[in-house]
């Protein structure tokens, strides 16, 4: 028993010596592992373009007396003078402005332009610039952060609310959505995410619904604009990936395969009813309804593609090599189509499609410029006038009351490039 106890004591005394590291009398201890909380930084939107304001006396601001209920009067910021330099579209060789949408209020007093901040394929925000047309000044501006919004339009009957499409963003992990935006509050009031990757088009129905299309889907979705989050009605189209426009009580779906009339916003009962095959090389990115009863619709595509006229269940080429920008004067039944060559404007009396013998050349009027149009905007309230926004963000008022002698007035000059004396 004593011998076993002595042996155990010997082992316990010699064990630390055997375990000690060789060549070093002091033991080494491994430090505890360092736990690092690495959080991914939120993507930052690069500040492109410039927008600023300076305080001015109210007596210096007002030039034209406006109705207190007009869109311009409701949304013009008092006591401020604004300056705007648009964000450049870096992929453009001539550095066009990076604009995503433009719309004119129904009373003709306010223009809203949406502009991408941050650049293509990068994290984006959207800047909205408001223009007071009668006073020919900037009325105000604001930014919706971390959202790229395009395809804007006024909510019917509203002077302060817009509908637009928000594009999906891998940078912020957001899906495409249809958004309702309040210009007075400067924020998105309501939205609905797309069931597919993106919304591709929308149109206001006569029943107050808003009809939408999505990527790679043959369905048309009908939402209640006052409750976008509600369950939509689904209408099946015979087109694989249509876009949509409104023609009175009817909706028109269109795509490269053809044109489909949805009577009273309802799907066709027969497979071939109200469906018309598109002609070869049919361009159909944008639609302008010139007569909802027939219906008569103008379709156009990308720059230098053709413009098509659908009427009487047939589709014919109206004009070759257009810029894709057009405007419809419903008061005088005049259609204005900008041509790709020299930005001249062809004029048609509709619905007969009788062309004026001589295209207009608004860009030759002073202040003259070499820029193509980003948008031509017309509403009945402007009568014989329309707003031209060129691809550098310059805003003009065009007066065509005398068709052979147009006049041009500057609303705002954002970029002098391309101007000539």
Q: What can you see in these coordinates?
A:
- The protein has three helices and 31 strands.
- It has 421 residues and is mainly beta.
- It has a seven-stranded antiparallel β-sheet, with no helix packed on it. A four-stranded antiparallel β-sheet has the order 3-4-5-6. It has a four-stranded antiparallel β-sheet with strand order 7-8-9-10, with no helix packed on it.
- It is globular, with a radius of gyration of 31 Å.
Shape: globular
Q: Describe the biggest sheet?
A: 7 strands, antiparallel
Task: Please tell me how large the radius of gyration is.
Answer: 31 Å
> In angstroms, what separates the terminal alpha carbons?
118 Å
> Helicity level, as a percent range?
under 10%
Overall mean confidence score, pLDDT: 89
Please identify the structural class as seen in this structure: mainly beta
Q: Tally the beta strands.
A: 31
Strand order across the largest sheet: 19-20-21-22-23-24-25
Number of helices in the DSSP assignment: 3
**Low-pLDDT ranges:** 17-29
- Could you tell me the strand content as a percent range? 35-45%
Structural features:
421 residues; seven-stranded antiparallel β-sheet; four-stranded antiparallel β-sheet; 31 strands
């Amino acid at each position: 028993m004593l011998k076993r106890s002595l042996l155990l004591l010997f082992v316990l005394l010699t064990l630390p010596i055997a375990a000690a590291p060789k060549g070093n009398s002091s033991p080494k201890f491994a430090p505890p592992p360092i736990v690092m909380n690495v959080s991914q930084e939120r993507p930052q939107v690069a500040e492109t373009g410039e927008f600023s304001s300076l305080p001015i006396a109210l007596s210096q601001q007002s030039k034209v007396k406006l109705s207190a209920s007009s869109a311009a009067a409701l949304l013009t910021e008092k006591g401020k003078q604004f300056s705007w330099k648009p964000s450049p579209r870096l992929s453009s060789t001539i550095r066009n402005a990076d604009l995503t949408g433009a719309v004119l209020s129904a009373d003709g007093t306010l223009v809203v332009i949406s502009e991408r901040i941050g650049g293509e394929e990068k994290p984006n925000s959207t800047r909205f610039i408001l223009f007071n047309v009668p006073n020919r000044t900037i009325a105000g501006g604001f930014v919706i952060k971390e959202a790229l919004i395009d395809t804007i339009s006024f909510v019917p009957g509203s002077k302060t609310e817009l509908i637009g499409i928000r594009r999906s963003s891998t940078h912020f992990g957001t899906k495409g959505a249809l958004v309702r935006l309040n210009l007075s509050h400067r924020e998105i009031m309501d939205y609905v995410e797309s069931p597919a990757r993106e919304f591709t088009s929308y149109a206001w129905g006569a029943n107050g619904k808003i009809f939408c299309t999505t990527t790679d889907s043959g369905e048309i979705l009908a939402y209640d604009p006052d409750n976008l989050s509600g369950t939509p009605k689904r209408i099946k189209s015979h087109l694989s990936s249509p876009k949509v426009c409104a023609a009175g009580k009817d909706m028109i779906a269109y795509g490269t395969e053809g044109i489909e009339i949805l009577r009273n916003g309802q799907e066709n009962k027969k497979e071939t009813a109200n469906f018309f095959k598109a002609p070869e090389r049919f361009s159909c990115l944008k639609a302008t309804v010139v007569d909802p009863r027939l219906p008569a619709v103008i379709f156009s595509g990308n720059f230098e593609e053709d413009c098509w006229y659908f009427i009487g269940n047939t589709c014919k080429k109206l004009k070759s090599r257009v810029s894709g920008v057009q405007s419809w004067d419903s008061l005088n039944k005049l259609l204005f189509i900008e041509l790709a060559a020299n930005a001249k404007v062809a004029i048609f009396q509709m619905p007969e499609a009788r062309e004026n013998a001589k295209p207009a050349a608004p860009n030759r009027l002073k202040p003259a410029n070499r820029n193509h149009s980003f948008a031509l905007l017309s509403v009945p309230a402007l009568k014989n006038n329309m707003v031209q926004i060129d691809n550098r963000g310059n805003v003009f008022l065009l007066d065509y009351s005398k068709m052979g002698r147009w006049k041009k007035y500057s609303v705002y000059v954002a970029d002098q490039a391309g101007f000539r004396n």
